[in-house]
Amino acid sequence: MEIEYNIALALGLIPFVLYLINRKEVDQTTLYLFPFLLLMFIISLFEPLNILYFRINAMVWFRFYMFLEFYCVLYFFYKILNFKKITILLAITYLVVYLYLLKDFSFSQLENNDIPLNLIMALGTITLTVQWFVEVFNKMEDIPLYNRSDFYYISGLLLFYCGTFILFLSLDYLSSNKINTKPFFFNKYISEYCC
C-alpha cells in the first residue's frame, strides 16, 4: 500500500507544477482554480511531514482539509458563475453545518459526522454545475464545450464529488460487512488528483 500512497501524493504535486510551468499561457478559468491546485500541492507536501514529524490526528486534519477544499471549489464556481447568490448560500450553509458538527465532533463517529458535509459538497457541486450549464446555454456562445477549459474542470469536480459521496454513503455497509475499504480510498485519491 505504500507504493499507492506515494503515487497518490505525487499526483497532488503534478497539477500545481504544470500550472507553474504554463502560468503565462493559462486562461482566466484556470486562474480561478489556482487556490484548489495550491491546496492539493500543500497537502501533498504536508501529509508525509505530518506522518513523520507533526503527527496531527488524521481525523482532525481531514476535517480541516474538507473545510479548505470546499471553499476552494466554491471560490472557483463563484468566479465563473454570474448568479452568485447560490454560492453565497452554500458557503453559509456549509459553515453553519461545519461549526455544528465541530461542536459535536467525535473520533469514534467521524464517518457518520462527515456525511452532512459530503452531502452539501455533492449537492452543491451538482447545483452549481447545473447553474453553469444554464448560463452557458443561455449565452449561446459559439465556443463548443470541448474547447472550454471550465467544462473539463467542472466535469472532473462533478465526477469526483458525486463519486466520493457514494463512497462515504456505502462506507458504513462496507465496514459492517468486514470488506477491506483501503482500495476504495486509494481510488478516491487517484480520482481526486487526476480530476
Features:
mainly alpha, single chain, disordered C terminus, 195 residues
Q: Count of DSSP E strands?
A: 0
The gyration radius over C-alpha positions equals 18 Å
Q: Tell me the overall shape.
A: globular
| Sheet having the most strands | none
User: Which structural category do the helix and sheet elements fall into?
Assistant: mainly alpha
**Separate helix tally:** 8
Distance between the termini: 22 Å
What do the pLDDT scores average to?
Answer: 82
Stretches with pLDDT under 50, minimum 5 residues: 186-195
- Into which percent range does the helicity of residues fall? over 70%
H/E series: HHHHHHHH
Q: What percent strand?
A: under 5%
Short description:
This protein is mostly helical and 195 residues long.
Protein model, in words:
With 195 residues, the protein is mainly α. The protein has helices at 2-21, 28-32, 34-54, 58-80, 85-103, 110-139, 149-176, 182-194. The longest helix is centred in the middle third of the chain and has 30 residues, at 110-139. It is globular.
What's the topology here?
Layout: H1 2-21, H2 28-32, H3 34-54, H4 58-80, H5 85-103, H6 110-139, H7 149-176, H8 182-194
